[in-house]
Specification:
103 residues, mainly alpha
Length: 103
Amino acid sequence: MSLESLKNRLASQYPDFTLDLAEEAARQEVALKLVKLRLERGLSQAQMAEKLGLRQANLSRLESGQANPTVGMLGRIAEALACKLKLSVEEGNSNHKKHANSN
C-alpha cells in the first residue's frame, strides 16, 4: 500500500485525520526551525531557555514538537534569536498549509 493510499484510507475513516496530519507537520516544521536557528547562533538549550525565561524542559518540548507554542511565545523566540516572525495561512487543496517561519 502506498503512502498516498494509506493517507486516503485514514482520511476516509477518521474525519479529522487530514487536519491532524497538517497540524502535526506544521508543529514539526516549527520545532525544526527553532532548533536550527538556536544552533546557528551557537546557543545551548540551557542558554536559550534562560534568554526566554523558560525551564530547559519546556524549551525541549517546543523543540521536539511535543508542545504548541503560542504566537506570543514564537514572538519572544524570534526576538531572542534576532529574527523576524512571519506567520502564514494559505488556501489550497485539502492539505491546508499552515506554518510559522522565523527568518
